[in-house]
Design goal:
- The protein has eleven helices and 25 strands.
- It has about 550 residues and is an alpha+beta fold.
- Among the domains are: about 45-55 and about 140-220, Outer membrane lipoprotein wza fold like (Roll), CATH 3.10.560.10; about 70-135, wza like domain (wza like fold), CATH 3.30.1950; about 225-300, Roll (Ubiquitin-like (UB roll)), CATH 3.10.20; about 435-535, Outer membrane lipoprotein wza fold like.
- Strands 7-6-10-8-9 form a five-stranded mixed β-sheet, covered by helices on one side. It has a five-stranded mixed β-sheet with strand order 12-11-15-13-14, with helices on one face.
- A hairpin with a 5-residue loop joins β6 (about 140-145) and β7 (about 155).
- About 25% of the residues are buried.
- Residues about 1-40 have low confidence and may be disordered.
Length: about 550
């Protein structure tokens, strides 16, 4: 029995894992995948081929069109003899006009149509007969599209259709292997036209010419290319038409922003070594790029002044430009406070702090996501419950990821303002004095209440209709006017002292995090707590 026991335990564990509702987890994982960031860097020019060019065709006069079998020509005569009849060019390339006979039109230029027919008619009607001829509709031509396109084939269209229309019919150029700059139109197995689509994309230039049946559009393979990111309008993969592509050429193609002053070039050499170099703007025209290089255009300014924004209750400027390294104490002296300004509760918000808070919350959300998708069950009934719980948690995660932290630097000692060095883009907010206490979260009637000196935190919660059944009595937060947070445990056996309530305070009652797993419950509780501190909101489960 001792030898059999380990195998029984293993079988029991496997059956527990197997009882998880796999289809539900797969569905949950699909929902999670939609939250993952997508790579937006593509190939320059790929936006052309979305099917828009195939929706329309252009019926226009084309004097260079060569008439083909099946084309319809309307012949009109007036004067001594009236006649108007449409004629179809027959299999031998002719039309037949009564009293005149056959007129050969196969291969005749559209621009020479009237003169050709008129010459034949004038041989019979020499005087007082006038002639006009017109094509009712062009016959479709068949054009081969091949090379690095998504759907090579033979496509019907008008001779006056553009090259872009035929490429769109072939579902566009293959973004992995196709060239947008080396496209050849072959006629009679010889190069007829060379096309660079960058001329059309960047400058709107497109040479129009008449296609003939049997023409071939050949999209060659991409040669050299460079990937671009950073301070540019077009962060794509760009193709070099020849081997002579400089940083200056690339800056024009990518549309560098005025803030770009430097470029970092990563080159992958034949010696299996990665070379990373930085070049200033003035050297761009001297730097030759290699195929496969990664280029990042970026600003690299020497900053001596920073911009600080002043918001809230004050009478002074809303934007200050101060020397780099200026402390909050110096700026505080420049602010023109008014009688309504709460100068003892100055708030500072910083972008880098908000980003750090966001990363911490996202890290815990990823941990919660993993727990929700991998927690096993020991029975089909429990598996069904786990599935519903996982779905609820994933919906909570999706809402939590949309929360944006404020990035507040909490100032607890007004005498230490000289130790806070301001950074570019910092926001200094001056709260207005008020006698309001806000109660929100898991209470019956959230709201704002007039401050009364003799009332404590329990009194304000009672004024809001008391705690709801979903309230977490162990985690009640008091957010002071200056952003400082204090936790209050209101549970039956708690020994913590009640925090004093002051004017402008906010009381946040967090919800209970109830789950089948203690680990899941713990993580959810911590996430709710961090969101309340960082964003000053209570997120529902």
């Amino acid at each position: 029995m001792k030898k059999i026991a380990p195998y029984l335990l293993l079988a029991f564990a496997l059956s527990a894992i197997a009882s998880v509702d796999v289809s539900s987890i797969a569905s949950a994982e699909k929902n999670v995948s939609t939250l993952a960031p997508q790579d937006t860097r593509g190939v320059f020019g790929s936006h052309l081929f979305s099917g828009n060019f195939t929706k329309t065709t252009q019926h226009m006069y084309n004097p260079d069109y060569r008439l083909a079998i099946g084309d319809v020509v309307t012949v009109k005569m007036w004067g001594a003899f009236d006649y108007e009849v449409p004629h179809t060019i027959d299999s031998q390339g002719n039309i037949f006009i009564p009293r005149v006979g056959t007129v050969k039109l196969l291969g005749v230029r559209n621009g020479d149509l009237v003169s050709t027919i008129s010459t034949s008619i004038k041989q019979v009607y020499r005087n007082n007969v006038y002639v006009y001829a017109d094509m009712g509709a062009y016959q479709n031509v068949s054009v081969f599209v091949t090379g690095s396109v998504n759907k090579p084939g033979l496509y019907l269209g008008l001779s006056s259709d553009s090259l872009v229309q035929y490429l769109d019919k072939a579902s566009g150029i293959n973004t992995q292997s196709g060239s947008y700059r080396r496209i050849t139109v072959l006629r009679d197995n010889k190069p007829f036209k060379k096309v660079d689509l960058y001329d059309f994309i960047l400058d709107g230039q497109m040479e129009m010419f008449a296609f003939r049946t049997g023409d071939v559009i050949l999209v060659e393979s991409v040669g050299g290319y460079v990937r671009v990111s950073g301070e540019v309008l077009r962060p794509y993969r760009f193709e070099s038409k020849d081997t002579h592509l400089t940083l200056a050429n690339l800056a024009v193609l990518a549309g560098t922003k005025p803030t770009a002053t430097n470029a970092i070039v990563k080159s992958y050499g034949t010696n299996n070594k990665l070379s990373i170099k930085s070049y200033p703007l003035k050297a761009f025209d001297k730097v030759m790029l290699n195929s496969g290089d990664d280029v990042m255009f970026m600003p690299d300014h020497s900053v001596s002044m920073v911009q600080v924004n002043i918001e809230g209750e004050h009478d002074g400027l809303h934007t200050l430009i101060v020397p780099k390294g200026t402390s909050l104490a110096k700026v505080n002296e420049m602010i023109r406070f008014n009688p309504q300004s709460n100068s003892n509760a100055i708030q500072v918000y910083r972008k880098s702090v908000a980003e750090m808070q966001k990363k911490l919350i996202d890290a815990q959300l990823r941990e919660l996501e993993t727990l929700a998708l991998t927690t096993p069950s020991i029975s089909p009934q429990e598996a069904s419950m786990r599935s519903k719980e996982a779905e609820s948690i994933l919906q909570f995660i999706e809402r939590a990821r949309k929360i944006e932290p404020k990035g507040q630097i909490v100032i607890t000692d007004m005498s230490a303002l000289d130790k806070i060095v301001l950074q570019e883009g910092d926001i200094i907010n001056i709260p207005a004095k008020n006698n309001i206490v806000v109660v929100q979260g898991e209470v019956t009637m959230p709201g704002a209440f007039t401050y009364e000196n003799q009332k404590n935190i329990d009194d304000y919660i009672a004024m809001a209709g008391d705690l709801s059944e979903r309230a977490n009595e162990e985690r009640i937060l008091v957010i002071r006017a200056n952003g400082k947070a204090e936790k209050y445990d209101n549970s039956f056996f708690a020994l913590s002292a009640k925090p004093g309530i002051e004017e402008g305070d906010a009381i946040l009652v967090l919800p209970k995090a109830e789950g089948k797993s203690l680990q899941v419950t713990s993580v959810v509780t911590q996430i709710l707590y961090q969101i309340a501190i960082a964003a000053k909101v209570v997120l529902d489960l």
